[in-house]
């Protein structure tokens, strides 16, 4: 005898499927499971995830996550994958078709799983680091400082260049490179977003090749600007224009406080 299951679309990502239980029946045969909905109801992804999570994790070779996530969390991870493979508003799907689609786009499917894994686990276990970093793509960006620390802790430094390339591909701001971790993640307050270390003005000057830039800058300055510079005792560096008297709107501007040697160079230029 066939059983037919009806689903109602979930309202939010963390809504459980309990609201649908009164009208549920399902249709199963030996090869496929087809899920139907009435004309007024669409699929509930959470309910599908609840029924299919085992098969989908197996298809993606993601059974390792069972060690670290309870059944409800595994279902949430699978629901995140399904959201990308079941078009909005569809009223029925076939399990074998969806699994086939997921299997053909395996790398994307795993990246969606990792998006959820990172949401669920504040500190992913070392065993999952390779999986997360190899497949996480742009979903890793907000977690890169944490993942960097975990790689260091687990002595998995070989994964750091992958994090670095993802960071540089997805971070729009042109931060200066940090001399400690190598990521372009040094903020104008001279702290690194990724490794958390700070540098001083002396190191900043070395990073940007200040001596040469400053010579060229002084050549460009008018007398009035040189006097203003002496008065202010500060210049700004940004990656587009080099040294400037004032911060450039819309750019990252690194303030550089001039030392006595810099000030005497200005005085020499004025004399
Ligand atoms: Zn750093």
What do you see in this structure?
By secondary structure, this protein is mainly α. Helices cover 46% and strands 9% of the residues. Helix 1 (45-59) crosses helix 2 (71-85) and helix 1 (45-59) crosses helix 3. The longest helix has 15 residues, at 45-59. Zinc ion binds next to loops. Zinc ion (ZN) is lined by residues 178, 180-181, 183, 185, 192, 194-195, 197.
What keyword list fits this structure?
disordered N terminus; mainly alpha; 271 residues; 9% strand
Describe the secondary-structure layout.
Elements: E1 27-28, E2 33-35, H1 45-59, H2 71-85, E3 93-94, H3 95-104, H4 106-120, H5 126-135, H6 144-153, H7 160-170, E4 176-177, E5 184-186, H8 201-208, H9 210-220, H10 223-232, E6 234-238, E7 242-244, E8 254-257, H11 260-270
Antiparallel strand pairs: 1-2, 2-3, 4-5, 6-7, 6-8
Bound molecules: zinc ion.
Strand order of the largest sheet: 1-2-3
Derived from helix and strand composition plus strand pairing, the structural class reads mainly alpha
Order of helices and strands: EEHHEHHHHHEEHHHEEEH
Rg over alpha carbons = 28 Å
Average pLDDT confidence is 86
Count of helical segments?
11
- Are any ligands bound, and if so which? zinc ion
Question: Unreliable segments (pLDDT under 50, ≥5 consecutive)?
Answer: 1-33, 36-40
């Amino acid at each position: 005898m066939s059983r037919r299951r009806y689903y109602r679309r979930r309202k939010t990502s963390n809504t459980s499927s309990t609201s649908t239980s009164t009208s549920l029946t399902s249709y199963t045969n030996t090869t496929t499971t087809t899920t139907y909905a009435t004309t007024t109801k669409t699929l509930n992804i959470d309910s599908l995830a609840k029924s299919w999570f085992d098969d989908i994790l197996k298809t993606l070779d993601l059974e390792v996550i069972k060690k670290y996530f309870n059944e409800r969390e595994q279902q949430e991870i699978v629901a995140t994958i399904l959201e990308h493979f079941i078009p909005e508003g569809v009223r029925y799907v076939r399990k074998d078709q969806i699994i086939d689609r997921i299997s053909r786009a395996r790398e994307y499917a795993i990246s969606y799983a990792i998006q959820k894994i990172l949401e669920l686990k504040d500190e992913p276990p070392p065993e999952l680091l390779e999986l997360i970093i190899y497949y996480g793509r742009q979903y890793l960006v907000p977690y890169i400082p944490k993942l960097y620390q975990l790689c260091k802790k687990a002595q998995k430094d070989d994964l750091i260049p992958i994090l670095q390339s993802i960071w540089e591909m997805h971070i729009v701001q042109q931060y200066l490179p940090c001399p400690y971790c190598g990521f372009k993640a040094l903020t104008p307050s001279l702290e690194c977003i990724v490794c958390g270390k700070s540098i001083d003005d002396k190191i900043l000057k070395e990073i940007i090749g200040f001596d040469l830039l400053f010579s060229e800058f002084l050549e460009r300055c008018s007398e009035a600007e040189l006097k203003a510079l002496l008065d202010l005792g500060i210049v700004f560096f940004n990656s587009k224009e080099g040294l400037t008297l004032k911060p450039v709107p819309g750019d990252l501007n690194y303030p550089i406080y001039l030392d006595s040697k810099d000030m005497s160079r200005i005085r020499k230029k004025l004399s």
